[in-house]
Amino acid sequence: RRGRGIGGALLSASLAALAAGGASRCLLEVRASNAPALALYAAAGFREDGRRRGYYPGTGTLDREDAVLMSRKLE
């Protein structure tokens, strides 16, 4: 049931709440293979800051997987 805008709405509300609470930046990490989440965060203005190599345990044929570190300035 992707593509209905629910994730974007939840993310926007969360970012607004963080900003209202005085936060100036939001940091997150996401599994490198989670393409839908990476696209959602990029569309919301998050940029990749780096990676934690081999951070997540493997699934299926993967031995280990990177964590993508992202952040965004809050207004």
Please characterize this protein's 3D structure:
This protein has 75 residues and is an alpha+beta fold. The protein contains two helices and three strands; from the N terminus they run αβαββ. Strands 1-3-2 form a three-stranded antiparallel β-sheet. A hairpin with a 6-residue loop joins β2 (47-57) and β3 (64-73). The longest helix has 15 residues, at 6-20. The mean pLDDT is 93.
Helix content: 25-40%
Q: Give the terminus-to-terminus CA distance.
A: 30 Å
CATH class: Alpha Beta
What characterizes the major β-sheet? 3 strands, antiparallel
Biggest β-sheet: strands ordered side by side in the sheet: 1-3-2
CATH superfamily label: Gcn5-related N-acetyltransferase (GNAT)
Any idea what the shape is? Answer: globular
What is the domain total for the residues? 1
Low-confidence stretches: none
**What is the N-to-C succession of helices and strands?**
HEHEE
As a whole number of angstroms, the C-alpha radius of gyration is 14 Å
The whole-number mean of residue pLDDT values reads 93
β content, as a range?
35-45%
Structural class label: alpha+beta
Task: State the total count of DSSP E strands.
Answer: 3
CATH architecture: 3-Layer(aba) Sandwich
CATH fold call: Aminopeptidase
Number of helices: 2
List keywords for this structure.
alpha+beta; 75 residues; 2 helices; three-stranded antiparallel β-sheet; Aminopeptidase; 3 strands; single chain
